[in-house]
């Protein structure tokens, strides 16, 4: 897939996942074959005010490129300022979030709320494009609710405002992360625009992604929650069901990357949350997860995983 000057070799892409799509996990997913990884949502205000917590979120590494950073906000000028700051970083694409369903985001007029304000959304896209040296993409939903599905019109607006790719999560805002995923709307969007279209929603395995591309004609697929604790989802070589050894080996590599790039003991809770997900659905996984959540330090967690690998 080609997005402006950006070439993506594998059409399987890691979604922006708040609290999860950090640098170590992005690198891990790239190692397992993801063609592109998105950062978690980054506040335009946090960037404009140079808040340290926000600046920490845009740290990248050469080994993860290409990488896309995702901005959210509802004020065109501030989104433009933030895009200029992001564009000076060693990144490859800027994405605009217009699909987040979380209420604290919606209350500020950002995320999926922008699907109700296409003129404002257009102004935001234009300002971001004007201030970015990299291609700009937009992620949105099928509509606000089932009575107001405007994905096709919204996609045309995004293309006309300068976006060079779009991602459509095939649910409405009112669906949240439940409800039925409407692949047909991805197909309709793909037929309505000339820029690349990335499909998103309920892809649980590599085969699901292939089927979405075949049925909708979309150029790539984005995988979110199904990639947590399962970075092998981006690889066609993975044998199902996934063995304990494969899970533990992946987690061990994840912890190596965490140790390299993060203050491990300060982020132990988040790291344990990541680690526990590797054993969901596995026979005996509940007991392993309990042992993970009981550790008191990162070193203790590493020792636990090393013992598991030896016994597997």
Key terms for this structure?
eight-stranded parallel beta barrel; alpha/beta
Question: Can you characterise this structure?
Answer:
By secondary structure, the protein is α/β, with parallel strands linked by helices. The protein has 13 helices and ten strands. It has helices spanning 23-31, 44-48, 52-57, 76-87, 103-106, 118-130, 151-160, 183-192, 206-216, 244-261, 268-276, 285-294, 298-311; strands at residues 2-3, 6-7, 12-14, 36-43, 67-72, 93-98, 136-143, 165-172, 197-200, 220-223. Strands 3-4-5-6-7-8-9-10 form an eight-stranded parallel β-barrel, surrounded by six helices. A two-stranded antiparallel ribbon has the order 1-2. Helix 7 runs parallel beside helix 8 (183-192) and helix 10 packs antiparallel against helix 13. The relative contact order is 0.12.
- Biggest sheet descriptor: 8 strands, parallel, barrel
Radius of gyration: 19 Å
List low-pLDDT spans.
none
Q: For the residues shown, what is the average pLDDT?
A: 96
Query: Percent helix among the residues?
Result: 40-55%
How far apart the termini lie comes to 39 Å
User: How much of the residues is beta strand, in percent?
Assistant: 15-25%
Structural class of the helix and strand makeup?
alpha/beta
Q: Secondary-structure element sequence?
A: EEEHEHHEHEHHEHEHEHEHHHH
